Amino acid sequence: MNEGEWLPIYREVLSDMGYSESADAEAGRLLDSLARHLDVCDESEARGRFGPHVVVVGRAWSPVEGLPEGIPVVSAGGATGRLVGAGVIPDVVVTDLDGCVGAQVEASSKGALTFIHAHGDNMGLIGELAPSFKGKVILTVQGEPHGALRNYGGFTDGDRAVCIAEHFGAARVTLAGFDFDNPIPDTPSKLRKLAWARKIIGMRADAGLAIDVKSGL
To answer: What is the per-residue pLDDT across 158-172, written as a single tens digit (0 to 9) for each?
Structure first.
């Protein structure tokens, strides 16, 4: 999803969720200020982590479900703890630094490329946790990008992972462990976030990205 296509959707999300664009921008500035302390990956190198078909793993994934063989694995945030616990180091982790961050840092140390995302609600986590990632990283925002920051579209870790995979060349994405109807934690706000995630993934499907559902829907 290009920036011109994404930003109007982003501002709809802000209006619906009651979030602050200025707070998102402030978080982005903080993350950008840390870039010099991180191993920032360029896009040409990052492209090699993906492929024409990727699997994006969500938090509802269970090891008993398994994963398609020979396909790059992109972990959406909290799914990383389950993957690492099952002995799977994902090729890519997409995170806004909540949920099983220890597993995300471990995956980074073992070679995963991490897309670290800034938004207004995670400024404290950015300063505390972003420097812990010792592997390759790409820094993302959901508003206007600048400096080392990039914007590939997407709101939650899950739909952002889909948008990132598409940007880096995937024509087909298999969703494993996505459950848009049973949020963790089970709050009205989280349910609305998941509704946006489902909508944004649907937009990518409407635009021509092939979406397969392995489980959880």
So the answer is: 999 999 999 999 999
